Amino acid sequence: MPRDTFEKQVHDLENTLLEMGTRVERTIEAGVDALKTRDRALAESLIARDAEINRTRYELEDRTYTLLATQQPLASDLREIIAILLIAIELERIADHAKNLAEIVMHMGDEPLLKPLIDIPRMADLCREMLTQSLDAFARRDAEAGRSVCARDDVLDQLYQQIFRELLTYVLADPRTVNRALSLLFAAHNLERIGDRITNIGERVIYAATGRLEELNVEHQPRFD
Predict the structure, then answer these.
(1) Which stretches does DSSP call E strand in the chain?
(2) Cα(137)–Cα(35) distance, integer angstroms
(3) Which fold does the domain 3-210 belong to in CATH?
(4) How far is Cα 59 from Cα 123, in angstroms, rounded to an integer?
(5) Would the pTM of this model clear 0.90, i.e. be above it?
(6) Secondary structure of the chain in HEC code, one letter for each residue
(7) Other residues' Cβ atoms within 10 Å of the Cβ of residue 159
């Protein structure tokens, strides 16, 4: 395969990946919006759209395997293709966590929220910012920008722990609130896991840019899950 044709195929893979990332970012927003407004129609739409993201992930995976098998790329080309493959897998899993938010809405039915949502939307906003940052870092092959995602994940973990403690006070005060508290805790847990997946993307950015494997997602504080 001529070099320019090979480069075009890799470029097309990257464009598909970044477009997938934009769609996944929207699923995070839609999931939390559905939870805030108890919008079952929005939740159902998000669950249905998850299949499209799954298809994109497997399409990207198939294309990367074909390119690896037929062209046997080396050095930076190989790192770039592998990074695209691994980031696509992380994006698909992020979308799964966002879909879980919609499923929580469906499970809750008409049951009222235990409390106004404050920190959960903050977590969602931070997740979206982190995802945008990590994908922009990949597009620019900016290892430092990818590395900085880790620090923001620490803030996300702190918000999750804060939510856990707050919900625990509700349950201790009135055990009848346990189901509603668990619904919000599961929502926060999915957002916390999204942050971990985004940190994994930051690691792939560093690998693509430098060839080094770095573990950014190291726990600094005890978890409550």
Answers:
(1) none
(2) 30
(3) Methane Monooxygenase Hydroxylase; Chain G, domain 1 (1.20.58)
(4) 30
(5) yes
(6) CCHHHHHHHHHHHHHHHHHHHHHHHHHHHHHHHHHHHCCHHHHHHHHHHHHHHHHHHHHHHHHHHHHHHHHCCCHHHHHHHHHHHHHHHHHHHHHHHHHHHHHHHHHHCCCCCCCCCCHHHHHHHHHHHHHHHHHHHHHHCCHHHHHHHHHHHHHHHHHHHHHHHHHHHHHHHCHHHHHHHHHHHHHHHHHHHHHHHHHHHHHHHHHHHHCCCCCCCCCCCCCCC
(7) 19
> What one-letter code names the amino acid at 152?
R
SS3 212: coil
| pLDDT, tens digit only, all 225 positions of the chain | 677 788 899 999 999 999 999 999 999 999 999 999 999 999 999 999 999 999 999 999 999 999 999 888 888 899 999 999 999 999 999 999 999 999 999 999 889 999 999 999 999 999 999 999 999 999 999 999 999 988 889 999 999 999 999 999 999 999 999 999 999 999 999 999 999 999 999 999 999 999 888 887 665 444 444
